[in-house]
Amino acid sequence: MTDWLAWLTPALEDATELELLNELACGRAQLWPGETAAMVTQCLDGPEGRFLHVWLAGGSLEGVMALKPGVEAWGRAMGCAEVTINGRSGWARILKSDGFRMVEGELRKKL
Which CA distances in Å does 44 have to 49, 70, 100? Predict the structure, then answer.
């Protein structure tokens, strides 16, 4: 198992490893591997426009935070106006100072 898959597996609550690998292989999700962490995003279209959804994140907190600026820049380049995150409640506390706010059970930030 590669490091990034080991980091992300604990965050898989509503999908299997096989489903994750399939989403990546089909291009419906993007993998952002780092030295000590990884993220998986999806560029989605909703009623309010295009947004970047952080589907999974795992590994060290510092590693995830190091990936965030590049991931957000890519989202802006893809035409996303906002980034969303569904995850554990601790992320709300960690990301509040970065402009994220809780809206209907998910974290959101304007890009």
Answer: 8, 18, 18
CA triple 7-22-52, angle to 5 deg: 70
Tell me the pLDDT tens digit for each residue of 13-38: 889 999 999 999 999 999 999 999 99
Starting from the edge strand earliest in sequence, which strands make up the sheet with 82-85, in order?
A: 30-33, 37-46, 49-59, 82-85, 106-110, 101-103
With contact defined as beta carbons under 8 Å apart, do 17 and 11 qualify?
no
Residue ranges of the alpha helices (H) in the chain?
3-8, 17-25, 61-77, 90-95
The residues with which 50 forms a beta bridge, in sequence order, are 45
Q: Which residue has the tokens 């604990």?
A: 10
